[in-house]
Amino acid sequence: MNKTKFYWLIQMLCWSVVTLLSIQHIEFTDFNQSTKTIYLILYFFTGLLSSHFYKIIIGRFHPDDITHLQNALLPIVGALSIGSVYTVLDYQLYNYSDTSFGAFVVIFLKNVWKVLPWFMFFNLFRFLSIYQDRKQRESHTENLLRISKLESLKKQLNPHFLFNALNSIKALTLIDNVQARESIIQLSDLLRLSLNLGEQQKATLSEELRLAENYLSLEKLRFDTRLEYDFQIQEDIGNILIMPMTINTLLENAVKHGIGQLKSGGHIRVTAKTEKGYIILSVENSGVFDPRPKSNEGGIGLENLKKRLDLQYGDNASLKIMNAQGKVSAIIRMPY
Hints:
The chain is an alpha+beta fold and 336 residues long. The chain has 8 helices and 7 strands.
């Protein structure tokens, strides 16, 4: 049920109840049938139309322009207004024997008390509706901003990856032209896959692993025996959806700052497993991790990845890099 239908349903129910309650302080038996009918109809439509008119007036004001004190006083003002109308209606339809001011005040307060709950409910409902709409707008705006930032980071990712791959081929052309040509073919396939993944909000683990294997195969041509690698993947988790280009970012870092800095080369191990609703991805490489910032080094790889994880998962995901047993371990933990 939408808000408009709900509003009119509550209106009808509320003023039907108020009309029936009005009988309590009127000697209804003194009325003939036609007067009773007119009385009930007037009572019902007076409340219905007056409250709707009240809603229209309140709706002309922007919620931010109304103070908390005004919000508290609005239902009282509304109840006093319609209570006054009902009191006049009572005196016109029924000849009270006691026309003193005290009797008038008593009838007036009874009428105000009858309609006050409606105004309290209406203002509470209006406040909750405004609050909900505001929260939805804020949430929608935050989602648009988050998606915009993610798209911006993903657009930075592919040029960064391409730059690293081209550097690898450039180094290879100085060593072996035949392998360089093979590398270009592999790079073409690799870029096709990475571009497809870069356009997706999510990728399957198997797609990420295929990209990782292609990347390491390309780097193997450049490093030859200086690079060894293997995969340790838990069974039956290939269809799990993860953030695209995660493993590859860790691999680029492992090759550039790990294997590439060692004369004898080293080993890279890629692992993936699940644990209590989380998937844990790990890239372990030979070398030593230096946590000190390197201001002379460009690149956006790991910093980009951290921002993407934060935007996508918030505090539910993490990226840790540490030295362990003579090797560097980069570990991503994210929900799936």
